[in-house]
Design a protein that fits this description.
A hairpin with a 5-residue loop joins β6 (246-251) and β7. A 5-stranded mixed beta sheet has the order 2-4-5-7-6, covered by helices on one side. Strands 9-8-10-11-12 form a 5-stranded parallel beta sheet, with helices on both faces. α1 (17-64) packs antiparallel against α2 and α8 (322-331) runs parallel beside α9 (349-359). It contains 11 helices and 12 strands. The chain is of the alpha/beta class and 410 residues long. The chain folds into 3 domains: 23-104, Signal transduction histidine kinase, dimerisation/phosphotransfer (DHp) domain (Helix Hairpins); 112-264, Heat Shock Protein 90, CATH 3.30.565; 291-406, Response regulator (Rossmann fold, 3-Layer(aba) Sandwich), CATH 3.40.50.
Length: 410
């Protein structure tokens, strides 16, 4: 009123719960984006070190191989370093590609019969050598294998299963300076339980919360303590989930770590024949009566193929385009096999293969590609290719692929 005393109150209320919820989501999204940006920045900074380290070995020891006074032992040692650096670099590239596939939802698994006992034995040989190479011969590597109810063959994705076990074992080797590393598998109900246990430095409580996240590591000893990109465990967890299982870890600082994961136990009761031919050298092959057409536009890769097959005595023709490969196959009756690059400048290798097969279906065609995407092998088969190998082409895989056709020709 005129005296300033309240004579009534008018109030307006509005429910802003939705607005507050949206605002909170914006804040959380902003924080996640900033965290992701920070992690990727740290990842890229660390990547420079991870790439340059193996490249230093590859380039450095390659240059040392040009020295004239090297002993055979020196050459063998330098080549081992070059091979190790190349494998490390390739593994790094594979991890980056895999994490990109995971983000795009394109990482897939393919189930086929696989012998678990053979896989475990191969892992033992590989990681016993890794321990030796790192000067950790005193660390015991122990393999434990459970007796499966049926055969040792199960239905799984052999490449991805081995990738997970390799990631866990490499980490165990990396962080274990004394004691032992024990790995194996056992049947638990309807599941296969795989495990890797070490007596290494262990993982901090803070590290246990983040080690399965992309680009994250246990930084208790600092990022540079053991290197790495922080991708291996994130990829492993995703693969295990795709296989129908889950992965866990128990650890404490100074007490080692136990990683274990379960996947469904899918027994396979038919015998799986070992397709490996054990061709580790080319000295026992005589393909001097055979002719191979190499379709490859990259000079360095052709030079590798030529050098790799030189001791077999095989006659080699080379073209650099898909159309040239079609022309020479249709007009030359002496082509025994074609090694077809998929990525060509004029006509892709699959199209060229289709045209060759339309007129000369008896000529075997082996596709070689650097794409290595899920379904690529199936795509090559549909295009008419008789076999498929991915780049970088390993000598043994190349020889096995060629022998599968050349050794059976009359």
């Amino acid at each position: 009123d005129s005296a300033g005393n309240p004579i009534g109150i008018v109030a307006i209320s509005r429910d802003i719960s939705d607005k507050e919820e949206i605002q909170q989501k914006y804040i959380e999204a902003k924080e996640k984006a900033e965290e992701a940006d920070r992690l990727k920045t740290a990842f890229l900074a660390n990547m420079s070190h991870e790439i340059r380290t193996p490249m230093n070995s590859i380039i450095g020891f390659s240059n040392l191989l040009t020295e004239e006074d090297l002993t055979p032992e020196d050459k063998a040692e330098f080549i081992r370093h070059i091979n190790h650096g190349s494998e490390t670099l390739l593994s790094l590239i594979d991890d980056i590609i895999d994490i990109a596939k995971i983000e795009a939802g394109q990482l897939m698994v393919t189930f086929e019969p696989y012998n678990l006992r053979e896989m475990m034995d191969e892992l033992y040989v590989t990681h016993a050598e890794l321990l030796k190479r790192k000067g950790k011969d005193h660390v015991k590597l122990i393999l434990e294998k459970d007796q499966l109810p049926g055969s040792d063959v199960v239905l799984t994705d052999p490449f991805r299963l081995k990738q997970v076990m390799t990631n866990l074992l490499v980490n165990a080797v990396k962080f274990t300076e004394k004691g032992s590393i024990t790995y194996g598998y056992k049947v638990t109900g309807d599941f296969l339980n795989f495990y890797v246990k070490d007596t290494g430095i262990g993982i901090s409580p803070e590290g246990l919360k983040v080690i399965f996240e992309r680009f994250r590591q246990d930084n208790r000893y600092g990022i540079k303590h053991q290197g790495g990109t922080g991708l291996g465990l994130a990829i492993s967890r995703h693969i295990v989930q795709l296989l129908g299982g889950d992965i866990t870890v128990t650890s404490s600082p100074g007490e080692g770590a136990l990683f274990s994961f379960i996947i469904p136990y899918n027994a396979y009761h038919e015998t799986v024949k070992d397709k490996r031919k054990g061709r580790d050298s080319t000295f026992n092959m005589d393909w001097s009566a055979k002719t191979i057409l190499v379709v490859e536009d990259v000079e360095s890769h052709y030079n590798y193929i030529r050098s790799a097959l030189m001791r077999t005595g095989i006659n080699m023709l080379r073209v650099t385009s898909g159309q040239e490969s079609v022309d020479i196959c249709l007009n030359d009756h002496q082509i025994d096999i074609v090694l077809m690059d998929v990525n060509l400048p004029d006509m892709d290798g699959y199209t060229a293969t289709g045209k060759i097969k339309a007129h000369k279906p008896e000529i075997p065609v082996i596709a070689q590609t650097a794409y290595n995407q899920p379904g690529e092998e199936e795509r090559s088969r549909k295009a008419g290719c008789d076999a498929y190998i991915s780049k970088p082409v390993k000598l043994k895989e190349l020889l096995d692929a060629l022998a599968g056709f050349l050794d059976n020709q009359t």
